[in-house]
């Protein structure tokens, strides 16, 4: 009966029992207590828990009242309030005060109540409002785990929940791993991984796992599978492993074609990666420092079921070793790791990076984009493609500093991320060619027309002449803005995308297949959607840009490296094939059909409108950046002409179907002068009866409509 409290440290399975006499001594206000020798010998991790807790942390309301019994006066002060806030009173009034103002607003955790405290424990900033305001600002809670002081009760509850999710529930300033029972096993693409309960909050967990990024992982896997088909084995690096899900999928499906290295700088994440490797029956090869301590698994034999796990900074591991495939997926921007990634990546290797700082890339935080990427951007109708070209421009500059050029294989910008996959071309000549494709963009803020600035260093007298529109001559003030520097080259490689589609079909990646088909149509700027997968007897040929080429699957002996000269010939031939895939680049940027719709008119269906533009002799396709976007080489004036011609009036007395003839009988195939389109826009604005629509054109928000399809 002498032992009333029993706390168990789960990591060591030790019961630490605290005598009742010690608790009573603590309740009477003892400032510090000497730890017993027996307890200090047993608990070498924590000095004293929970014996050094704050007086505001109690189990029962009666314990708070006992703290006021230290004085023998009839009037008793509140132990958690200063005298200037709450004067001494009788016991019945003190009971109501403690119950209503301290106990009812407390936060409960494992039988303890963290009551609100008004003492001068927390520093308060000076305020001119008076002492009463100062006392309200000084109210706070004391955390039982880390002794932090937190003002709001909701913040205190969230603070405790974060400790629980991380396993920090035992003692002050001690981090212990969460028990096995709190782990959750998630399965994706035949790969099992253990995650913590707060795996979806990257800033509050060591093992971040986002199920919404499944499509991103499938695209990266397809790119790696294509590279593994060109040469094997390849060394690939997942620089930010977290749970290790991506590296495990590489090793589990590609087997002997890849040598996977998973890296993370967090110790808890590295431990979880090792456990996930064992969960998927993979052997773990540790780095040299850990092998010296005798923690290595296996006898050092290289096989297809071995994954190397390292605990280093991502920049360090990329500086120390060379890789054929590097994937960067940090929390936020990846610009801090680009120099290290291109330093040791092998020739014709692939670097893929996922950027999740969409607030800056999508022009919601323009100052952050200028700080991170050195790029000036504004919110436009094509902001997602603008984000992809911003990232590629930063990648190009980082590669050029290492005398390397790039070839963009894939650029995807969706709701949660921007994915860029590039192939590395070593040498100063490819670096110069890539650097020349980083140019500024002239964007008209009135009609959303855009054009890349011409090459050359000479200053033009009137830069507005480069824009196809005539907004500067017909509108007052400055109408255009200079954006960039941006990547002005192609965003897709058609042949590489076709091979990625074949890999997605082979491995059953259902979510990636529709997107890859859209990307192929977008790369070729066509609306055709007929894709045929090759039969098993035709595996030795693949079509790239209409040309059938042989793949490494035909004869493995021809791709075995017999000396340095043979390997250079193979790599040089692959480089020539990749350069040949640039035959027909897609037009840059796209137009949103809702953004340029005519007021009072029903626009045609999107697929029909694509056919109308194609019949007019222009290349046209849909885009994955915007479900209502149209990628075409038609100028904006002709785009609006076709849209107006096949739109129908919304009022009842008008004709139900049929094209609307423009004034002056301008035909669809003819070039429409920009002044005619400007006059139409002025007429539309005049009908708004001075409602301020003209001023709204310059804003960065666009009207939201229902999808036409």
TrEMBL record:
One of its GO terms (molecular function) is zinc ion binding. It comes from the Eukaryota. One of its GO terms (cellular component) is nucleolus. Pfam families: TRM. The lineage of its organism: Eukaryota, Metazoa, Chordata, Craniata, Vertebrata. This is tRNA (guanine(27)-N(2))-dimethyltransferase. Residues 143-163 form the C2H2-type domain. Residues 20-46 are annotated as: Disordered. Coiled coil: none annotated. Gene3D superfamilies: N2,N2-dimethylguanosine tRNA methyltransferase, C-terminal domain, Vaccinia Virus protein VP39. The keyword Ubl conjugation applies. GO terms for biological process: tRNA N2-guanine methylation. It catalyses: guanosine(27) in tRNA(Tyr) + 2 S-adenosyl-L-methionine = N(2)-dimethylguanosine(27) in tRNA(Tyr) + 2 S-adenosyl-L-homocysteine + 2 H(+). It comes from Urocynchramus pylzowi.
